[in-house]
Amino acid sequence: MDISVRHIFAAAIAVAATTATAQTPVPIHHIGPIQATSTENVGQAVTIRATSDGHVIVGAGARQRVYAFDSTLKNFTLVADSGAGTGIIPVRTTGVIPYLADSTLLPDFGANALLVLDPTGKQVRSMAPPRAQDLMFLGIPAAFGHPGFDAKGRLVYRTQIPPNIRPAPTPSGDQKVAMTPVNPDSAPILRGDFDTRKVDTIAWLKTPTQGRMGMEMKENPAGGPPSITMHMMVNPFPMADEWSLLSDGTIAIVRAHDYHIDWIDPDGTRRSSAKMPIDWRRYTDDERHARVDSVKRLMDEQLKRQMGQLPPGSPQIKIDVSVVPDSEFPQFWPPIQQGAVLSDLNARLWILPATSTNAGNGLTYDVVNRNGEVVERVQLPKDRVLVGFGPHNVIYMTRAEGKSTYLERALLNGSP
Hints:
CATH class: Mainly Beta
CATH architecture: 6 Propeller
CATH topology: Neuraminidase
Radius of gyration: 23 Å
Largest sheet: 5 strands, mixed
Distance between the termini: 35 Å
Strand content: 35-45%
Number of helices: 3
Number of strands: 30
Number of domains: 1
Strand order of the largest sheet: 1-27-26-25-24
Shape: globular
Helix content: under 10%
């Protein structure tokens, strides 16, 4: 999924908002006044690392840049830029990872290492990741979650099992085309030790399947390359778990099928909390048809664009996109979307539900404590998206304005 997923689904969430079955009332609060706004367009898919002295390291995913802003958000230095080039790193991912004290880690693919940045964004040293092949998963938080460190200094992060993208071709004729899953339906959460280089699996997530794929091949009677038909069967309503590492080292896994949380405490204790209240909502026939048509059109465009990049003389490839049978469709809108779970500095989860009766007036986040209880809901000003937290009860958001996106800072102590 595109790394600007939070902004993409912000609009979808507002459209999906509707009156639902009443739940136990949870207080809704608003944030305090905006304290600072950047004049620089940081774009979408932003991750931040706020330091105790007010500096903010910003990974600007859509712009493929990394900034170091001062406390005013007006002044900044460019840490890395894939366009202009800074001589520091070839930017391919821009997710920033909080590290010791006020330092920050940034993946460096050129050196296959993690850069250590000071609060001003200056590189002070580099270090090898626990496992080199996992480096690519550390810089795309919207897709793989936000990596972090436990109390023993071990890196906690999510990867994925390699997809099965090479189905065996089926000869033409009456034989049915074999449809195989494009990708596995689960992904591991790992813990890597920098001293021993040992990496172990500590939990599993349900991940959205991209559908199934089949390939049919016909020989060319006149000779030359065969003709190939790629059959793609996609699921327009994927449902997947999300995870986050709390500030106290607790791992929280939000289960999508019933909106409850499985916990792994710092001492290794595993527990589950009760289902949380949410505005479960069935999708209408019109929504179903619109979603199916949209997904089919998008997949068809992407595949045709990729096929158009094949070199001359390649086999003729046709694309056939369909959707999974109705029996595989969920009955309700998935409760959460990819990249919709963050944790603050007080060991609380912030979850953006996919359906909300209040979303039309501004995105409304469920704030959940370590007991799995929604203790409050916090509504952001309209057209804002949460991107992270800072010391001293600070929240950071992005605000879309036309084709530009700006970083904002506010206080959390708003009023109901």
